[in-house]
Amino acid sequence: MKQTSKKIIQSILFQHIMFWGIFVFSFYLLIFGLEGFSLKNFTLTRTLSTFITIFYISIAVYINLLILIPYFLKRKKYISFGLLQILNIIFIITLNLFSSLLIERASIKEVNVFNEFIYEAILISLFLSITTFLKLLRDWINFQEDSLNFKETQRQKLEAELKLLRGQINPHFLFNTLNNLYALSLDKSDKTPNLILKLSDLMRYMLYDCRDSYVLIDKEISFIKNYLELEKIRIGEKANVDMKVNGSTGLQQIAPLLFIPFIENAFKHGTNRQLNHSFIRIIFDLEKQGVIKFSIENSKEDKEYLKDKKYSGIGIENVKKRLTLLYPEKHSLKISDNQNVFKVELILEP
């Protein structure tokens, strides 16, 4: 950290030295040219007076860079900045004028004060304008770099959080499915081999296709259909499970595994043996281009039962976080709890 700061300081110092070095060289070259390229005009007094003029100009520049720009211009105190800038110029011209008179041992009567004032005011104003522009340009470039670095950091943080959330879905889903498989194996059910085959198809999708940030919605719907077939094997005739897809899937993409937690919970609470007419209804509405509407409703016992069992478990909270990260301001999630029906409606905007 110290080495980095040292490099930055050295870099800025080098830039300032180069700037003033070029300015001094150009300034003397200009005078040398205007005087007919004669070395006789460069007396010690003339050289010293010119150097002091440059020194005072640098003071005006650093008053502007270190005080006026950060404390007035950047804080949008434009009137104060303008007035103080005028005072800065007048103050420097006055100092330089008296210093020149002392060095050259001249009387103020021998100098055309008005012409000197106008000349130096133009010269100082020119350098203040140039250095102000360079300062604001460098600050703008630094701001852009910091903004890009911040966005990159946020992007990496977002990706890491999404990977963590998506990674939580896999073991959670697998745990529930293995529990189902275990229950069937205890009953020595003939459905067990088919269940294992369906599970392998689901795991293949989760391991390979879900590695991408987005998948075709057609693949996600196929995954859900396989999951429904798997659950139908497990529950048999205990519930009526129906799924409809309205519209064309096309080439629409979606973040993987967004819907499965809602479907898992529907099977968990909607196929209870105490229910006389268990049902689960799933609808995908893709008729409006770019918009994905998903709804699922299931039968339930009563509100108190759901409150005790905490319907919105790990999976639902996980989906809410992923929706906030992936579809900020572009999703609508509505969960309604009626007397005998629990319903979830999710809309994803393009």
Describe the structure.
The chain has 350 residues and is an alpha+beta fold. It contains nine helices and seven strands, in the order αααααβαββαββααββ.
- Count of individual domains: 2
Low-confidence segments, given as residue ranges, are 304-312
Rounded mean pLDDT is 78
Write down the CATH class of the largest domain.
Answer: Alpha Beta
Which percent band covers the strand fraction?
5-15%
What is the annotated CATH architecture of the largest domain?
Answer: 2-Layer Sandwich
- Give the SSE order as H and E letters: HHHHHEHEEHEEHHEE
- How far apart are the first and last residues' alpha carbons, in Å? 43 Å
Q: Spatial order of the strands in the main sheet?
A: 2-4-5-7-6
Helix content: 55-70%
Task: Give the CATH topology of the largest domain.
Answer: Heat Shock Protein 90
Kindly report the name of the CATH homologous superfamily of the largest domain: Histidine kinase-like ATPase, C-terminal domain
Structural class of the secondary elements?
alpha+beta
Number of helices: 9
Major sheet: size, sense and barrel closure?
5 strands, mixed
| Rg, alpha carbons | 38 Å
Q: What's the total number of strands?
A: 7
The coarse silhouette is rod-shaped
